[in-house]
Amino acid sequence: MKINFQNASFKDFENVPGQDLYSTVNEFHEYLDFLRNNGHLNYRIESTSPVGPEMDLLLPGDTEITRSVCLVSNDYLGFSQHPKIKAAVIDGISRFGTGSGASPAIGGHFIYHKMLEEKIAAFYQKKEAILYTTGYTANSATLQCLLHKEDLIILDMAVHASVYEGALNTNVKTFLHNNLEMLELVLKNAQDKYRTKMVVIDGVYSQDGDLAPINEIADLTHKYGAILVVDDAHGIGVIGKTGRGVIELDNAFSKVDIITGTFSKALGNIGGYVLGEPNLIEYLKYQSKQHLFSTTATPAIFGILRAIELVDEEPEWRSKLWANINYLKNGLISAGFDLGTTASAVIPVKIGDIPKTLEAGRLLLKAGIYTNPIMYPAVSKKNARIRMNVMATHTFEQLGKVLEAFKLIDQKLKISNNHNS
């Protein structure tokens, strides 16, 4: 039976009952054509310019470049284009070449890897770190290594997909997003039933931009003998007085057992890290298969070393970022849009209707505003939204264009609260 494309999402094609592989991929191709023909395939758009507050896009079906205000990048501080960071990358490659040539255990562990392990651990007041090639792998590989069929992982329902993948080898329980009463109930019921119990949360949640109450969650987790893991991928460089993320905001450095994160957002590079107790990190370095059998990061990570330093040396970028966040948030709220509980550089405009969300994305692109329409399964079907990521390098003029574009599409689609009263 054919899938109804009008109401479909990518998840409908993960495992289609009664269809073999090529039947599914061919039907998925038809679905992408359906989105493309309606101007709603707002994914894999080709960029012809560097990451920045404005980007040159080659939109589907176009032959001319469209200059757009970019709100899809996680490069929150603009560090991917920082001249001091680019100079550090160039210097690293000049000295060490373009690759590391091997996995970490058998020849691919260089002095720059050790330097980065030490620097990111010290940044979060931890003693040891392990590096992964991506932030996604830092979560998925670590959790798969540490937890097995005798153990239990307890997840905030809104954690990143990489955490869910990391939970495939163990027992899983979830609690409603940031719901402390439900978390305690799960912990209490699991108290004597599993060998190792682990609670995993995000610091900043990537779809709503809201924050975890880390202190309260840490207290509950430890009360019931569990381990707390915090992924603060969207918090580093952005949240906290010195950019140490939500953990700094709550002064919870001593309460978080394991910290995971990525170099690919505010630090402007690529790769992931896990921080924790020295013996645990040592165990991961010899037991985590994706780390052990992956070629290590290139000498371009000299740029990450410099970026971590610049978080402290040039705090003005964080100040500029927050000025921009507040300008855009206040403008959208004044115009009647629902932003939920965001408290970070992630700003969602909640629409709740998938066809309207897709159309809003199309109209915004047409107006020169590049955003992310987000729908099921990334969020529930009733929580479809336009998600935007603010950068320190945006100007008020550029963000003013964004506000004007939202007001114009609101006249057509009636997506603000002004039309619901």
Summarize the structure in short.
The chain is an alpha/beta fold and 421 residues long. 38% of the residues lie in helices and 15% in strands.
Describe the structure.
This protein is an alpha/beta fold. Helices cover 38% and strands 15% of the residues. It contains 14 helices and 14 strands. It has helices at 21-37, 83-96, 111-123, 135-146, 161-166, 180-189, 214-223, 246-249, 278-287, 289-292, 302-313, 316-334, 354-366, 396-413, and strands at residues 46-47, 54-58, 66-70, 128-132, 152-156, 171-175, 197-202, 227-231, 258-262, 272-276, 346-350, 369-370, 372-374, 385-389. Strands 4-10-9-8-7-5-6 form a seven-stranded mixed β-sheet, sandwiched between helices. A four-stranded mixed β-sheet has the order 1-2-3-12. It has a three-stranded antiparallel β-sheet with strand order 11-14-13, with helices on one face. Helix 3 packs parallel to helix 11 (302-313), helix 6 runs parallel beside helix 7 (214-223) and helix 13 (354-366) crosses helix 14 (396-413). The model has no long low-confidence stretch (mean pLDDT 96).
